[in-house]
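[agent] plan:
  1. take the single chain provided in the ticket
  2. run structure prediction with default settings
  3. attach structure tokens to the ticket
  4. add a short note for the reviewer (M.T.)
[agent] executing step 1
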Amino acid sequence: MQLITVRTAIAADAAAIEKLYSELVSSPHVRVLPARLAAIARDPMTRLLVAETEYGVVGTVLVSLCSDVMFQNQPFAVVENLVVSASARSTGIGTRLMLEVEHLCQAADCSKIMLLSSSTRSDAHRFFEKTGYAGTTKKGFIKYRRQFDHSE
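[agent] step 2 finished; step 3 output follows
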């Protein structure tokens, strides 16, 4: 069994995270800036985690705590960009990352954790359901920047 360490991302992880994101989406615009990672590390409402093994950084996930008013002071969490390198999938890395997300959210007294997954990523859907996320209780909607109304 391999040793998996989950920790907060640091600026030096930029290249490894960018490589992981390139496995998730095929876009020439993917850029991970060390300065942005440093800023996120200082943000008390956002955590970017990485999973490391003897092979280096092999997984990442971003969790953002969002202020809410419905349940007094309880925030809710949004998880984004969970990626495990194709060479390291099915080894427990995604599960470890999501468990750490749950620990962070429990410590912050979050009311819920939400995430979106591309409608075509059925392997990811099975993983999320296996880790306790319900894909049938709500329907997600998304509008990308290129679709925003740019008229003034």
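[agent] step 4 note for reviewer: The domain at 5-147 is CATH 3.40.630.30 (Aminopeptidase).
[agent] ticket updated
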